Amino acid sequence: MRSGNEPVTARSPLRLRFWLSLWGLVWAGAGTALFALADRPGWAAFCGVVALLAAVDLVVVVRRIRQGPHYQPGRDIPPYEPPAGPRP
Question: Which range of residues forms the domain containing residue 55?
Fold first, then answer.
């Protein structure tokens, strides 16, 4: 719902989330490899799960970035009026 007080220059944090996911994927992948070499299977599995979560998040972010901008009403569209009457 549009309230009318959104900032005009609001930006999506998807690019920041992309870089943070990529950073997490690199570090978790390195942690998985290093812990596996150090014979620490528990920590290697944990880092592997974190790497998998980072990879899934990366796929979701890239998909949303490729979808492009969605329709947002312009300045000439007034905000929605709040519903009249008492709250239920």
Answer: 14-67
